[in-house]
């Protein structure tokens, strides 16, 4: 971590004015070897467009982004002006902290400044100290352990409590802590968690993370209030069940190929397996500029509230997008992020700065989340400390909505590169295109960071924790990144390049072999066949599905066209999107599910009222039938695209025969208006009433597709996103399997086929059981296609039917999973 060198601190200076002070601190940066002389002009240029006064007599002049090439290496210098210098009207500065930053590695020093900003006595002391080491120590290490911001022990425990050991290998990190907070918020009781001599509010994610509860720690959960006993019982059950601790982890070192590289290298921490060779691209976040003060506190409070709500909507959309592409486990990261935005401690601290100090919403929010992130970063447990990156990611998301402007926003080149950064936030990583991001190397972070988890999901080789020196690698430098061993080869020799080429060629051969096999049909050893198709949620995924061996698309989630915008997509927009996908499939069938949206998703232009239980409300086909023009527009677009290839239409959340008949009648009207040929029409089997009416529904539908995720939650009465109960929402529960069995039998009686497009379709145990139940089509995520087809090719129908029969007779999901 970067620290301030005492030799770059100059005491007892005097300055005629702000320009003189900036030139003096710039000279210190030059003398220390941090910058070229021309960068001083950049420091002055910044002052013309931004206010660098922080408060409490401190200013932080720094250059404009375009002049970073004049920075030799990142560094910080301090000019002490005991008599002060006028900075802005009414602002007098005593400490001038000059910054030359190639990336974000100076941020710890700036974070340490927040302590000083909140402590006028400390700011006064540093402004007049005669020992440069005082300033060096204060800005390099932050507050002393006795800082008033440290959590304070409670004087007395609450009357009701239990003690419990945290056995998770990663302790109470973000995901299980989020689950615990969600449970605690469901009770009126005051609930606290004690770890050692510190305690925190169980309804605050940041408070829990700040307790630093690691693996093996014993905590005391305490409650007081009318429902305290019920709260403690629920929390004990959830903690004993493990909460939602499903943290992904990289492959074990023993499973990785170790290579002895000859060139000069840097050792990092392996985070995502694979090998990358190519040019470096230094990833630098854009500078978010906010005003320091504001005249109307009321207006700023409103701005803050709106920005937080906007960030919540963004996170909800990001959660849905990542879940559809990589699964709920990876998307859970963004649920934890959303929980940060519910933390009243952070929000109220920002509000106080707005009300009491006349600060702008942007400045107040930046200070508030920055202070909390600092406290998280100071945790001894590396995993918990890494959550500071998540809080900063969330903080920046809100800050962007409050910005006056954003300077030098990062853009990736249009050619493949290896990204190097101080750290990448989960939001940064989730937006990466694996075709352009050959590999990722970060100076900080760990293998269990959310950045690493998402990199593994994307299949991007990555190493983390490589140190600040990687930030000095020039753009365009050819390097080798070994994600298997966590090695960055800075000066690859000819032998290293040959090795890299050989390993990449071997990997390419293996992928090619898998690719060739993935096109083989999923025909069982005794001749039975199951179609394996893809779930997709974006136009570009259609081609990827074909390349992965998909025999078509079993579920196109059309919601991507409707979310994250101010008005509904036009008929032309939808037609173009559907046509693009149909043409990419080149004759393979696609099942287009009509709009499946409801009160659980934020769609402002639909003006949908908030529902107490949106999963039982106006959603799916109910919404479409209640808003026929929205439905008609989508159907017209689908029929217009149907002339380009085989399309099937599927209605979501059909619960009654009447709904299906109404939807079919409206669809037929639209088809005749467009003049299109008839298409097959199927329905999602997602609710118990559809299962019980399957024989009647089969007489009207051409096919069924079981949405096992929703069917499971409705069958078991468990919200699959519930923090405490979600683990019990297992699609292999015998009750769910019996519903699927009843659905298949009803469809077969009518001569219709059944597919499954939920999570169990890609589950290895689920593949066998569903096949044995008579399911004809499995619709899975694109990366799962080859594995599912290979598994089916190794089975006989007799084996599958035997396992399915035994599964139906099991008493629980756990028993099903124990079957062999």
From TrEMBL:
> Start and end of every PTS EIIA type-2 domain?
2-142
Q: Where in the cell is it found?
A: Cytoplasm
Q: Which InterPro entries match?
A: HPr-like (IPR000032), HPr-like_sf (IPR035895), PEP-util_enz_mobile_dom (IPR008279), PEP-utilizing_PTS_enzyme (IPR050499), PEP_util_AS (IPR018274), PEP_util_C (IPR000121), Phosphohistidine_dom_sf (IPR036637), PTrfase/Anion_transptr (IPR016152)
GO terms (molecular function) for this protein are:
phosphoenolpyruvate-protein phosphotransferase activity
Please state the protein's primary subcellular location: cytoplasm
Q: Which domain of life is it from?
A: Bacteria
Q: What is this protein called?
A: Multiphosphoryl transfer protein
Q: Which organism is it from?
A: Thiorhodococcus fuscus
């Amino acid at each position: 971590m970067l620290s301030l060198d005492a030799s770059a601190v100059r005491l007892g200076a005097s300055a005629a004015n702000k320009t003189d002070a900036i030139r003096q601190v710039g000279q210190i940066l030059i003398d220390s070897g941090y910058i070229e002389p021309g960068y001083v002009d950049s420091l002055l240029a910044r002052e013309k467009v931004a206010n660098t006064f922080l408060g409490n007599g401190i200013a932080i002049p720094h250059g404009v982004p375009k002049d970073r090439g004049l920075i030799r290496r990142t560094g910080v210098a301090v000019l002490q002006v005991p008599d002060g210098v006028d900075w802005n009207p009414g602002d007098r500065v005593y400490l001038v902290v000059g910054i030359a930053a190639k990336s974000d590695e100076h941020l710890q020093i700036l974070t340490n400044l927040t302590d000083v900003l909140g402590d006028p006595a400390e700011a006064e002391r540093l402004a007049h100290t005669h020992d440069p080491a005082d300033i060096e120590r204060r800005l390099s290490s932050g507050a002393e352990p006795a800082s008033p911001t440290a959590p304070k022990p409670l004087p007395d425990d609450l009357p009701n409590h239990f003690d419990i050991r945290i056995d998770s290998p990663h302790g109470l990190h973000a995901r299980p802590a989020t689950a615990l907070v969600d449970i605690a918020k469901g009770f009126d009781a005051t609930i606290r968690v004690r770890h050692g001599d510190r305690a925190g509010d169980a309804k605050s994610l940041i408070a829990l993370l700040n307790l630093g509860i690691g693996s093996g720690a014993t905590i005391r959960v305490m409650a007081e209030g009318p429902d305290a006993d019920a709260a403690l019982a629920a929390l004990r059950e959830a903690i004993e069940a493990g909460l939602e601790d499903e943290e992904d982890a990289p492959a074990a070192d023993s499973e990785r190929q170790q290579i002895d590289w000859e060139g000069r290298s840097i050792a990092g921490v392996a985070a995502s397996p694979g090998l990358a060779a190519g040019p470096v691209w230094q990833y630098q976040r854009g500078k978010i500029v906010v005003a320091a003060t504001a005249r109307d506190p009321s207006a700023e409070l409103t701005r803050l509230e709106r920005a937080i709500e906007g960030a919540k909507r963004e996170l909800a959309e990001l959660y849905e997008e990542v879940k559809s592409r990589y699964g709920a486990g990876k998307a859970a990261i963004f649920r934890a992020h959303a929980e940060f935005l519910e933390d009243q401690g952070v929000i109220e601290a920002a509000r106080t700065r707005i009300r009491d100090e006349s600060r702008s919403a942007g400045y107040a929010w930046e200070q508030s989340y920055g202070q909390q992130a600092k406290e998280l970063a100071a945790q001894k447990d590396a995993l918990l400390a890494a959550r500071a990156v998540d809080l900063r990611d969330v903080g920046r998301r809100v800050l962007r909505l409050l910005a006056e402007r954003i300077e030098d926003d990062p853009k990736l080149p249009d050619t493949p590169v290896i990204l190097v950064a101080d750290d990448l936030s989960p939001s940064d990583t989730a937006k990466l295109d694996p075709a352009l991001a050959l590999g990722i190397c970060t100076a900080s972070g760990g293998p269990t960071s959310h950045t690493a988890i998402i990199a593994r999901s994307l299949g991007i080789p990555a190493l983390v924790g490589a140190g600040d020196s990687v930030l000095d690698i020039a753009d365009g430098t050819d390097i080798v990144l070994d994600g298997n061993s966590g090695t960055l080869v800075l000066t690859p020799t000819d032998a290293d390049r040959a090795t890299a080429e050989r390993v990449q060629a071997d990997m390419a051969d293996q992928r090619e072999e898998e690719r060739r096999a993935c096109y083989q049909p999923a025909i069982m050893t005794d001749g039975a066949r199951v179609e394996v198709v893809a779930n997709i949620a974006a136009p570009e995924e259609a081609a990827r599905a074909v390349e992965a061996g998909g025999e078509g698309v079993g579920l196109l989630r059309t919601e991507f066209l409707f979310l994250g915008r101010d008005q509904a997509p036009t008929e032309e927009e939808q037609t173009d999107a559907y046509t693009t996908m149909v043409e990419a499939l080149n004759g393979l069938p696609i099942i287009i599910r009509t709009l499946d949206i409801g009160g659980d998703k934020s769609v402002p232009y639909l003006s949908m009222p908030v529902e107490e239980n949106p999963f039982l409300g106006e959603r799916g086909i109910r919404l479409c039938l209640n808003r026929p023009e929205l439905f008609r527009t989508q159907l017209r677009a689908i029929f217009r695209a149907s002339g380009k290839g085989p399309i099937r239409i599927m209605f979501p959340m059909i619960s009654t025969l009447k709904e299906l008949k109404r939807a079919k009648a409206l669809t037929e009207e639209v088809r005749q208006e467009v003049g299109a040929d008839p298409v097959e029409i199927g329905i999602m089997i997602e609710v118990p009433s559809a299962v019980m009416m399957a024989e009647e529904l089969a007489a009207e539908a051409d096919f069924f597709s079981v949405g096992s995720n929703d069917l499971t939650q409705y069958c078991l009465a468990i919200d699959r996103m519930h923090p405490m109960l979600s683990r019990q929402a297992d699609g292999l529960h015998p009750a769910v399997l019996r519903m699927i069995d009843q659905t298949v039998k009803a469809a077969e009686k009518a001569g219709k086929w059944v597919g499954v497009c939920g999570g169990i379709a890609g589950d290895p145990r689920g593949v066998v059981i569903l096949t044995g139940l008579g399911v004809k089509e499995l619709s899975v995520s694109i990366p799962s296609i080859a594995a599912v087809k290979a598994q089916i090719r190794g089975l006989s129908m007799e084996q599958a039917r035997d396992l399915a029969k035994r599964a139906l007779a099991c008493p629980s999901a756990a028993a099903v999973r124990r079957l062999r």
